[in-house]
Amino acid sequence: xxxxxxxxxxxxxxxxxxxxxxxxxxxxxxxxxxxxxxxxxxxxxxxxxxxxxxxxxxxxxxxxxxxxxxxxxxxxxxxxxxxxxxxxxxxxxxxxxxxxxxxxxxxxxxxxxxxxxxxxxxxxxxxxxxxxxxxxxxxxxxxxxxxxxxxxxxxxxxxxxxxxxxxxxxxxxxxxxxxxxxxxxxxxxxxxxxxxxxxxxxxxxxxxxxxxxxxxxxxxxxxxxxxxxxxxxxxxxxxxxxxxxxxxxxxxxxxxxxxxxxxxxxxxxxxxxxxxxxxxxxxxxxxxxxxxxxxxxxxxxxxxxxxxxxxxxxxxxxxxxxxxxxxxxxxxxxxxxxxxxxxxxxxxxxxxxxxxxxxxxxxxxxxxxxxxxxxxxxxxxxxxxxxxxxxxxxxxxxxxxxxxxxxxxxx
Length: 411
Ligand SMILES: [Zn+2]
Hints:
Bound molecules: zinc ion
Helix content: 40-55%
Structural class: alpha+beta
Shape: elongated
Number of helices: 11
Number of strands: 15
Strand order of the largest sheet: 2-6-7-1-5-4-3
Largest sheet: 7 strands, antiparallel
Oligomer: single chain
Number of domains: 2
């Protein structure tokens, strides 16, 4: 299984300048690969593999190519051929595409070390050190562990248009090293959970835990401010361009914060439970969201489920998506459906009298559907019987702040 982890890097001016110099050499290598591909009529061109054999000649001709890591240089040649196949694919799918273009410095902001020439060190704390051959040490904020059994296949160092630097590790874990998922027959309501991806709470679990929405008010306030500022600038002016980058920076910051938050919640879920059931969201989105808000939240939810599914493999947890229609309306105890407008926050069953929070009821339905999906039938100890009303002291509310700041739910 392949996946990746990305970390912010904090560089001294000296290291940053050296990285920029290297990336620019890689840019020239990329452009030279393109030049040879288009202009040199030779047999030993046409695939990344063949093209790699030309690198010793390059180095004789242009000594600057010897100044960068040679595996990384190969990787840049490969990058050209990767782009070529992407282009070819698009063409085959009927899209109108041109040829691969020459890259200006603005368009080429990263390089990749492949297989060797790097080492990740001092990973015990919140910071770690990445050593790169021909560059030296750089400090990264190590907010998420790389699993012990994962192989680091490659490392990409990238400078964003905002000027921030990031390091991204391409990881691979052997199928054989992945933990086995627990036996389906061992699942019960104590080690399984239904999750409602909610409107009021970020998630609500069938055993009565909630995690609040991430508080992004300050960030959105800042975004509005920067956008207002942008609307006052003259289009296509230097100031406009500068301000546009500020807006992009805030947007990126928000996206990163959401992703980080989702990482923490999903890791907590797969560690805490043997089976996690979630709703298939396309349907739910159509049922409950207004049009505009929907797209944005759908995207966030899809990302959440993607993370959850890949972590399920890493941690050996069952993750199953279940039919979403009716999870809110149906009573988790007796199954009778009652119409429930979105502003009604309580579930109060007119048929059996069962009362709980609206999202808790939905989460319990998700759990029950998950059990049926796995062929386990109705959970023996139905969650409705053990569920606690939201106003009892046992009802656990996990604040978003706690998740993010102390990482108490695990990172
Ligand atoms: Zn009922």
